[in-house]
Design brief:
single chain, 347 residues, alpha/beta, 11-stranded parallel sheet, 4-stranded mixed sheet
């Protein structure tokens, strides 16, 4: 049956646009593909293919390639010849390596599905997929997200479920077109403040992580769906604890004084900063007190503010309040907090 279909395709020559050979127990990709330069769609999912043939690089008009559920272990360099490819399905393989330069030729790629593989990292070249809108990497072994990924300004869906991610970088704020983010079952302990700048984000799924609080401003996201089951979120359970006095280090006192003068554009301080770039980097990490709005650097009072769930969010069952992590510059400000703000202490 497979041979007969290939013979028919070959007879069509340049006019053959689509080849579909699903579940035919094919062990080797047909080298005769090189004789079909006009091919647009190639669907070889659910076979036993272990390696891509070199002739694949000649299919410069191919727009859809489906090699899902095969036995591939790598993406070879030959793939960069698929210069018209828009959709690439590689789910359900054993891919653990992506050859250098593969993504260089895939400038038209819009959708990439690498679910259920064995990837432990992504190459920096992923940032060259400038037209990518959908990226799915569920069920891999990723521990980090390369910063180059955040240059994909057209990305609207990012799926990273069931990996081993410890954090999401602040640079995620650069993905201004992101509408859906799924990071289910990772090892995330917190979400970055940059997430709160994603004004187009509508669906967020963080279920099954170890998140306790959310960054300040999280409640202002315009979400339509929010899922957070399986996270040890802080609950409103007040306990009495001894309140400490404010004893700041000399370094922190001096830093706060300089930060205040920087806010006022003090000319002497601004001039001095130009000669000490390392100090400028340190001051760029300053935070702002949630009560008095004054800046501080490395000493603060950690608190949780409980806010009501936005009415337009379709959220996890029983979630009524969102615990936000806020920082105060002193216990003096802590004494001026609202009734929905609580200090954090360890038993």
């Amino acid at each position: 049956m497979t041979e007969r279909l290939l013979v028919t395709a070959l007879k069509g020559g340049k006019n053959t646009k689509i080849i579909t050979l699903i579940g035919k127990k094919i062990k080797k990709m047909p080298s005769t593909l090189g004789k079909l330069p006009g091919l647009r769609t190639l669907d070889l999912q659910n076979n036993l293919i272990c390696k891509m043939c070199p002739e694949l690089s000649t299919l410069t008009q191919l727009t859809l390639l489906n090699l899902g559920n095969n036995r591939l272990e790598e993406l070879p360099e030959e793939m960069k010849g698929l210069t018209s490819l828009k959709r690439l399905h590689l789910f359900g393989n054993k891919i653990c390596r992506i050859a250098t330069g593969v993504f260089d030729g895939l400038q038209e790629l819009m959708m990439l599905n690498l679910n259920d593989n064995r990837l432990t990292s992504l190459p920096q070249e992923v940032g060259r997929l400038k037209k990518l809108t959908h990226l799915s990497l569920n069920h891999n072994q990723l521990t980090t997200i390369p910063e180059e990924l955040f240059s994909l300004r057209h990305l609207s869906e990012l799926h990273l479920n069931y990996n081993q991610l410890m954090c999401i970088p602040e640079e995620i704020k650069l993905l201004q077109n992101l509408q859906q983010l799924s990071v289910v079952r990772n090892n995330l302990e917190s979400l970055p403040e940059g997430l709160c700048h994603l004004r187009k984000l509508r669906i967020l799924d963080i279920a099954g992580n170890v998140i306790q609080t959310f960054p300040e401003g999280f409640q202002d996201l315009r979400l339509s769906e929010f899922y957070c089951e399986g996270n040890p979120l802080f609950l409103t359970q007040p306990n009495f604890a001894t309140q400490h006095r404010d004893i700041l280090t000399l370094r922190e006192i001096a830093t706060r004084c300089i930060l205040l003068q920087l806010e006022e554009d003090h000319p002497l301080i601004l001039d001095a900063m130009e000669y000490y770039p390392e100090i400028k980097d340190i001051f760029s990490q300053a935070k702002q007190c949630a009560i008095c709005r004054k800046p501080f650097l490395s000493e603060w009072v950690e608190c949780v503010q409980f806010v009501s769930l936005p009415k337009n969010w379709n959220a996890s069952k029983n979630l009524q309040q969102i615990p936000l992590r806020i920082l105060l510059c002193s216990y003096e400000c802590f004494d001026q907090r609202d009734t929905n703000v609580f200090g954090v202490f360890e038993e």
